[in-house]
Amino acid sequence: MTAQLYRLDIDNQFPYRVYGTQQDNTSISVPSAAEWGVITMSDCTLPGTGESGFIAVHPENPNIVYSGAVGSAPGGNGALQRYDHRTRQIQMINVWPEESTGFAPKDLKYRFAWTFPVAFSPHDANTIYAGGNHLFRSRNEGQSWQAISPDLSRNESETLGLSGGALTVDGAGAEQYATLSTFVESPHRPGELWVGTDDGLLHVSRDDGNKWQNVTPKDLPEWSYIGAVEISAHNADTIYLSATRYKLDDYNPYLYRSQDGGKSWQSINGNFPTGEITRVIRSDAIRPGLLFVGTETGIFYSLDDGQQWSRMRGGLPVAPVYDLKIKDADLVAATHGRSFWILDDITPLREMPISTDREIIPLLFTPRPTYRLKLQWAAGVFDGDGKDYSPAFGLAGTTYRQKQPDGATVRRHLDVGENPPGGAIVYYWLKSKQESAVELSICDKTGVVIESFSSAETEKPERRLPANSGLNRFVWNLSYQAAKPLDPSLATRDYEPLAQEPKGRGPAAPPGRYDIRMSVGGRSATVSLLLLKDPRVDATQADLDEQFELLQELTAKRSELRTHVDRIRRMKRQLDDLIQKLPKGARRAVSSTISIRKKLEVIENTLVDTRRESPRDELRHPAGLDDTLGGMMWCVTMSDTAPPAQTREVSVEVVRKIDGEIRKLNKLVDGPIATLNAKVGKAGVPAIIA
Asked: Cα–Cα distances in Å, from 53 out to 6, 87, 162, 253, 673?
């Protein structure tokens, strides 16, 4: 995943999609989540051939995408595409499509940079802006444009010649200077327009472009590249600006804030490290003063409006971050060389206190509202110890599991994107390494504990809570407890099969409110989790409750079945030992022992397929009732719907058959086995424990 992305946009679909323009490639649209458990290339679309510039998705119709395409489309100066995914057609809607090849920028009517701004109005989905050396506006999807500003650049003639000079002329049209580099319309005040230029000027119009005012920060050095202007969601007069000067051999950060609508500016570099160029700045819509900055090597954040900065970790590779956007509680980054990255939940940063005192940081952070999403049933069907070359039937894509030092495994993605965590993300803070175990419980609305996890878990690493000093993350998979597995120590096989038994998963928790409780070292905390249904499905709460109740019944019955299979297998072993231990005077009990064992085997083979030699050996013999029960559970759980009537009918029939076999088993225990125990007891041989 080495896409060199310039700018990004995000649509309003569910799950949302991320859009970007790629160097030496096309525009691309990538879903933030896919039903396969990973994101494959077949999930992506190519909305035009925009290689170089900004990209903007229609706020009300994600089929319509606008992107700058200088260098990757014909049609003259300032190539601008309108892509319609419904027709798969691209329309060129350049502001002024004059030929620019071989001409100096000073000889063109308008100038458009390699990455010229394109953006929709936050107040009118039918208004779109494009930035050359003037700001342009269209109210009819690019069918006509109006210049609503004068030339807002320095417009100095010595910067407007042919690129490359007299010996190495490059007149491809991509090297135009003295143009707009960023644009934003105030989300608070319609018609308040902010533009920055690639030669270091900042202007604002407060009357829809009729009058313009130069509000460039006095301390911003001349010829800076203004990469982003950001308006606070909390205060219409709080404006942030990021700029770079690396093309002038200056690698210092340039970050500014105005709290009076641009009348005055203060540097908010704070402790930002020198040598980190500041390409883009974004402010959070929920927490005032929470800022993010994309640099040449990653992302930095501030909790206190720029006084103190910290580098974001969490696995983000060292790469230039050209653009950032916040979608709900997700931070989305466009890197120039390592594709898109998403930090799935910034909730802890919204709740973290501004203090270096680790004592006052909350133990448990409030999880964001979480949607209950279904993966396609075959997702992960080929998952094993080695490389998995197909995430589901018919799909190509490679992942593999890598074991961590603590015994847990993580999935590595080679040619597919990573899905968001499949469940509720729980963040918690430990001020130091803990001597006692960290305990976490999930409770339903009645207070009943439905799942528990501990840092002391040793047998199942995937259920072990991390317990590191600082911020920890655990993902609850939104499931109740799975059916009890069969005891593998009681299974008799001639060899150990390569295929592994699939890991069971309990019924999905129905939408509603849950409590998350944590305790460690004498401290405890409780927060609420709101679990929401997938907004794309039509099922009602009653439908999903009905589905859950049936799944709970079938899960409980499967646990009961397996308990009795383990019981049978223990009795069979005891019967085998009994035959060897019987004294000569009690040998007549051997025939009844063999008879009882055969009857147990008949019941066992009805409940499970005892002749199966490996988990994949499913086709050679009749399925047991355990398999039938599993099939019914798939019928119930595969989609977010109430179970069909016929599924309920067959479920009742399967349960009736299981209960019948259990009655046979109990009758055998109360009759022949009790009789046998009485006989062997007189001979001093231990009884069969049933």
From this structure: 6, 23, 21, 23, 81
The full DSSP string for 326-380 is: EETTEEEEEEBSS-EEEES--HHHHH--SSS-GGGS-SBPPPPPEEE-PPPTTTT
Q: How far apart are CA 662 and CA 565, in angstroms?
A: 10
Largest CA distance in the chain: 117
**Cβ proximity of 232 and 306 under 8 Å:** no
Find tokens 């709080």 and name the residue.
238
CA angle 55–56–61, rounded 5-degree value? 140
Q: Look at residues 665, 678, 684, 679 and name the one whose alpha carbon lies nearest to residue 569.
A: 665
Q: Average of pLDDT values for 214-224?
A: 98
How large is the C-alpha radius of gyration of the chain?
33
Give percent above pLDDT 70 in the chain. Answer: 98
Cα-Cα-Cα-Cα dihedral sign, residues 644, 646, 648, 654: negative
- How many CB atoms lie under 10 A from the CB of residue 159? 16
Place of tokens 């989305």: 332
| Rounded Cα distance, 202 and 207, in Å | 16
Contact status, residue 61 vs residue 47, Cβ threshold 8 Å: no
Distance CA 20, CA 540 (A): 36
Predicted pLDDT of residue 683: 72
- Closest residue by Cα to residue 31 from 418, 536, 412, 403: 418
Question: What is the C-alpha to C-alpha distance for residues 358 and 184, in angstroms, rounded to an integer?
Answer: 38
For helices 645-668 and 589-607, the axis angle rounded to 10 degrees is: 170
Question: Across residues 158-185, what is the average pLDDT?
Answer: 87
Q: Establish whether the linkage from the previous residue to 190 is cis, with ω within 30° of 0.
A: no
* CA-based nearest residue to 404, from 461, 473, 476: 461
pLDDT in tens, 615-629: 777 888 889 999 999
Q: How far is CA 141 from CA 58, 127, 137, 247, 443, in A?
A: 10, 7, 10, 35, 51
Give the β-pairing of 89-92 and 80-84.
antiparallel
Stretch among 217-226, 367-376, 397-406, 498-507 having the lowest mean pLDDT: 498-507
What residues form DSSP beta bridges with 302?
A: 291
Burial class (CB in 10 A: 0-12, 13-18, 19+), 487: middle
Q: How far apart are CA 34 and CA 422, in angstroms?
A: 11
**Residues forming a β-bridge with 428:** 364, 472
